[in-house]
Amino acid sequence: SQQGEEDPQALSIQEGENATMNCSYKTSINNLQWYRQNSGRGLVHLILIRSNEREKHSGRLRVTLDTSKKSSSLLITASRAADTASYFCATDRVDSSYKLIFGSGTRLLVRP
Amino acid sequence: EAGVAQSPRYKIIEKRQSVAFWCNPISGHATLYWYQQILGQGPKLLIQFQNNGVVDDSQLPKDRFSAERLKGVDSTLKIQPAKLEDSAVYLCASSLQASGAYEQYFGPGTRLTVT
């Protein structure tokens, strides 16, 4: 069952620019996680934000969460070619908090 | 720390044949997940184990898919008989506990092609 939807589906930017991708979900959640997937390293966890948090930072990553709008955004600053990957949000619904439901992902291409 | 191990990495079979995938999670992780990822989509949870018990298998096509986690450590996922639409990457992941508050660690996946 679909919970998260990322937007845009695909994004192409120049190296050094910022990349913003969004995730919307349908039902109340406890936590939201962002993952990155590329051919070299597979699927890797980036950051977790809890429902009572509004913003978190990790290196060049900034995640925001707006529970009233049921949406989250992932900002990658000063992008690098190595950031080329697919990015997925994953949520745990309040009524089934033991598991994550992944969205369909945003494919990011960073051009050198 | 060793990561999640999966084998084989690639498998090509004909429809109606059977196939099995193996996963060894990170040591000490109680929760093990099998996901199916079709090209261009996000991972879809097939089955989730907590130790050697099943927590969720609501999206597992039980007429053809089966999974077990004997002794609460490694796990196998089997498809019998395979269909063309089973072509996908099968990902195994593990986490400390069954909660969305814990990050999941993924293996490299098995790419299955059914012809």
Helices, strands, pairings?
The complex is a heterodimer of chains A (112) and B (115).
Chain A (H helix, E strand, L loop, with lengths): L3 E4 L2 E5 L4 E7 L3 E10 L3 E9 L4 E4 L2 E6 L4 E6 L8 E9 L7 E2 L3 E6 L1
Parallel strand pairs in A: 2-11
Antiparallel strand pairs in A: 1-3, 3-8, 4-5, 4-9, 6-7, 7-8, 9-10, 9-11
Chain B lengths: L4 E3 L2 E4 L5 E6 L6 E7 L6 E7 L2 E4 L8 E4 L6 E5 L8 E8 L9 E2 L3 E5 L1
Q: Could you characterize what this model shows?
A:
The complex is a heterodimer of chains A (112) and B (115). Chain A is 0% helix and 61% strand. Chain A has no helices and 11 strands. In chain A, the strands form 2 sheets. In chain A, strands 2, 4, 5, 9, 10 and 11 form a 6-stranded mixed beta sheet that branches. In chain A, strands 1-3-8-7-6 form a 5-stranded antiparallel beta sheet, with no helix packed on it. In chain A, strand 4 and strand 5 form a beta hairpin. Chain A starts with a strand and ends with a strand. Chain B is an all-beta fold. Chain B is 0% helix and 48% strand. In chain B, the strands form 2 sheets. In chain B, strands 2, 4, 5, 6, 9, 10 and 11 form a 7-stranded mixed beta sheet that branches. In chain B, strands 1-3-8-7 form a 4-stranded antiparallel beta sheet, with no helix packed on it. The N and C termini of chain B lie far apart (37 Å). The chains are: A mainly beta (112), B mainly beta (115). The A-B interface holds A 4, 29-31, 33, 42-45, 48, 50, 88, 90-92, 96-105 and B 33, 35, 40-45, 48, 50, 55-56, 91, 93, 98-101, 103-109.
